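Structure in, sequence out. Go:
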C-alpha cells in the first residue's frame, strides 16, 4: 500500500525559497516552466492539506494523514520517556531528574547539615529550614556594646554605634566637608543643603537662607548687643528683642 506524503505545507514553502535552478541565468523560458511546474505541485499539496483539515473539522473524524501524524508524535513521546535517564539513590532506590535534587536527598541518609545558624549554632540539612528557624531570633539583641551596654540585633549596627565612643566620623558631607559618625546623621544633615541655605556660620556650621540672618546669628558667638534700651540701658542682640522689652517693661 502506498503511503501518502504528509509533509507540512510550511516546510515545502520554505524549501521553495532555497531552490537554485541550474538554468536560471541561462534560459529564462525553461526557468519559468520549472517554476510553473513547481507551483502546481505546491498548490496540489496545499489543497490536499486544506481538504483534510476541513474534513476533520466537519465530520469529527481523522484522516489517514492526521492519524499517522498523531501516531508518530505519540511514538516519539513514548520513546523519549523510555530513553530519559534518571538519577537513582543507591540507599533507597528513589529516582530524581536533577543532580541537585539527588544531592539534597542524600543528606537524609548521610546526616549532613551544612546550613548553620550564626546566632545559636544550630544546623539544618536544607537552607529553607534554616530560613524558617531564623525567624525565631527576630527581635533578639545578642550584640552588646562593652562601653555603654546598649544592645543590638545585628553586628553591623554595633560597629556603627562604636563610632560614637571612638569619635570616628567616617561619613563626610561632600558639600561642606562636615563629618558624622553615623550615616543617618549625614542624611539628615544633607537636607540642610537641599533647602537652599547658602550662607553658613563658620563657627557652628548653621545654615541660613539670607546673609542678613547670618549676620544676626554671628552676634550669638561674638556676644555683641548693639541695641540698648534708652531707659534702663539693657542691651539686646536684635532690635525686635529691644522692642518687645520696651512694650513689656516700660509702657506699663
Amino acid at each position: 500500500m502506498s503511503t501518502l506524503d504528509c509533509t507540512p505545507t510550511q516546510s515545502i514553502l520554505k524549501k521553495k525559497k532555497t531552490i537554485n535552478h541550474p538554468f536560471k541565468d541561462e534560459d529564462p523560458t525553461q526557468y519559468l516552466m520549472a517554476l510553473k511546474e513547481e507551483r502546481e505541485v505546491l498548490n496540489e499539496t496545499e489543497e490536499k492539506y486544506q481538504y483534510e483539515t476541513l474534513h476533520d473539522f466537519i465530520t469529527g473524524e481523522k484522516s489517514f494523514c492526521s492519524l499517522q501524524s498523531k501516531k508518530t508524535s505519540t511514538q516519539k513521546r513514548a520513546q523519549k520517556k523510555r530513553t530519559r535517564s534518571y538519577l537513582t539513590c543507591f540507599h533507597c532506590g528513589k529516582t530524581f531528574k536533577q543532580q541537585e535534587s539527588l544531592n539534597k536527598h542524600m543528606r537524609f541518609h548521610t546526616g549532613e547539615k551544612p546550613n548553620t545558624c550564626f546566632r545559636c549554632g544550630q544546623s539544618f540539612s536544607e537552607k529553607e529550614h534554616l530560613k524558617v528557624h531564623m525567624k525565631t531570633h527576630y527581635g533578639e539583641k545578642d550584640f552588646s556594646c562593652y562601653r555603654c551596654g546598649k544592645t543590638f540585633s545585628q553586628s553591623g549596627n554595633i560597629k556603627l554605634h562604636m563610632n560614637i565612643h571612638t569619635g570616628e566620623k567616617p561619613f563626610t558631607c561632600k558639600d561642606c566637608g562636615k563629618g558624622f559618625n553615623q550615616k543617618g546623621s549625614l542624611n539628615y544633615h544633607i537636607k540642610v543643603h537641599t533647602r537652599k541655605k547658602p550662607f553658613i556660620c563658620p563657627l557652628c556650621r548653621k545654615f541660613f537662607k539670607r546673609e542678613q540672618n547670618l549676620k544676626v546669628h554671628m552676634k550669638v558667638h561674638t556676644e555683641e548687643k548693639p541695641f540698648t534700651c534708652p531707659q534702663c540701658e539693657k542691651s539686646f542682640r536684635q532690635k525686635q528683642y529691644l522692642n518687645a522689652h520696651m512694650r513689656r517693661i516700660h509702657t506699663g
